[in-house]
Amino acid sequence: MSQKRIYLDHAATTPIDKRVLSVMQKISSEAYGNPSSIHKEGVEAKKVLSEARKDIADCIGANPDEIIFTSGGTESNNLAIFGAVNLPPHLSPPLEQGRRTDVDGRSPSLSSEGRVGVGWFPHIIVSSIEHPSVLECVRELEKRGAEVTYVPVGNDGIVSPKDVKEALRENTALVSVMYANNEIGTIQPIAEIAKVIRHSKSKPLFHTDACQAANYLDMNVLRLGVDLMTFNASKMYGPKGVGALFVKRGIKISPVIFGGGQEKGIRSGTENVAGVKGFAEAMRITERMKAKESARLTKLRDLFIKEILKKIPAAVLNGNAENRLPNNVNISISDIDAESYVISLDARGIAASTGSACANIAHDGKVSHVVESLGFGRDRAASSLRFTLGRNTTKEEVEKAVKVLFDLVKLKHV
Question: Which residues are registered as beta bridge partners of 123?
Fold first, then answer.
């Protein structure tokens, strides 16, 4: 008889909720038309799309026309960053780092038609612990002439609003700080950072990647004070390949995908109607159970951390112990190879990770840039393990995971 597996990698993706799957199956068979078509089937599909858009908007305190559907978090982050800072790839390097001057030596200002004026190279601020789908975007923009400031985090993995304030410049066009980190689970002071930006002279756009936050934190865009917000379905027990970008009314961003002009001309491509409806259902369910589930998981998370630190003296917690997502446990154990431990845990029926699944691909197995950013050295980053709990996680599973991990550490020192 095969052992029951313990899935502790919910930050990577979540299993689809049966209620969500049921809704999607119904829509797939009943509203299969193209929502851009004007016949009966198309009109029915468009109605479903509109209802889903309103449901999702209601969940985050937005207007339906502020929701742009995408294929997921990565595309939403790309759309937010490239859409806000539209630098074509053929631009020559700037004469000065981050700023190009006019022929008369003066620095041009922002164009009234957009964020970037003719001959003007923008400045971007991001935190050092962003997801690869943010970091790789700004690195590409750096190649095109933009200047980027990577704001550090403290040893606790928290971004300081003061550091963001000090990084702001006259030509700052965009600030992007994730709501909650996908590796160490630390929660960032988004509302405080938004306040700093509102009171700055440059008043750049403020984007947050909220993919990890949606299950547990307040997603109200008015209270957060953001202009752009990324979130997706696969992190909240919805379907993969469906996401959204909140774009505040009055904010103009450029498309990065061109075609038929769907989604107000910002994101072309036939919408995934069944997926979007599943996304909406997943978000509605999440909002209903958020408070109770967060409280339950916080207890399990704290038990997990307490037992690991008690049983394994060589273990240390990465990230702030309290200001973190209710489901996140990220530890480093000195002198271990984290990747081999993930394989050993998997062989014993436990799914965990060394960090972001996307980062493993993007950086070809290099150590976690997030844990390394905490300032404790590369060895701590190379020995970090991430366990992320979910709706089906039980106390018994947590206790089993701790025991298996303890046995692996003992085995290493035999």
Answer: 147, 172
Q: Of the candidates 90, 94, 186, which has an alpha carbon nearest to the alpha carbon of residue 148?
A: 94
Instruction: Output b/e per residue, 216-241; b: 16+ Cβ within 10 A.
Output: bbebebeebbbbbbbbbbbbbbbbee
Indicate the angle between helix axes 40-60 and 273-311, nearest 10 degrees. 30
Distance CA 247, CA 384 (A): 35
Average pLDDT over residues 198-223: 96
Under 8 Å between Cβ of 243 and 21: no
Sort strands 123-127 and 350-351 into parallel, antiparallel or unpaired. Answer: unpaired
CATH number for 306: 3.90.1150.10
Residues tagged active-site: 358
Q: Are 262 and 271 in contact (CB under 8 A)?
A: yes
Of 168-182, 320-334, 364-378, the poorest mean pLDDT is in 364-378
Residue 396 burial (CB < 10 Å; 0-12/13-18/19+)?
exposed
Number of independent structural domains in the chain = 2
The length of the chain is 414
Instruction: Return contacts of 410-414, CB within 8 angstroms, 24+ apart.
Output: 412/336
Residues 6+ apart with CB under 8 A from 237: 14, 15, 16, 17, 20, 282, 285, 286, 391
Sign of the C-alpha dihedral computed for residues 49, 52, 58 and 59 taken in this order? negative
Per-residue pLDDT at 120: 64
pTM of the predicted model as reported, rounded to 2 decimal places: 0.90
In a domain, 249, yes or no: yes
Tens-digit pLDDT profile for residues 51-72: 999 999 999 999 999 999 999 9
Q: What residue type is assigned to position 194 of the chain?
A: A
Strands 243-247 and 228-232: antiparallel
Same domain, 297 and 225: no
Those residues with Cβ within 8 angstroms of residue 36's Cβ, 6 or more apart along the chain or in another chain: 42, 46, 260, 262, 270
Q: 209 by DSSP, 3-state: which? A: strand
Structural domain span for residue 354: 6-15+290-412
Contact between 120 and 110 under an 8 Å Cβ cutoff? The reply is yes
User: Which DSSP symbol is given to 144?
Assistant: T
Domain match, 36 and 142 both = yes
Q: Are residues 259 and 342 in the same domain?
A: no
CA quadruple 341, 180, 234, 356: dihedral sign? negative
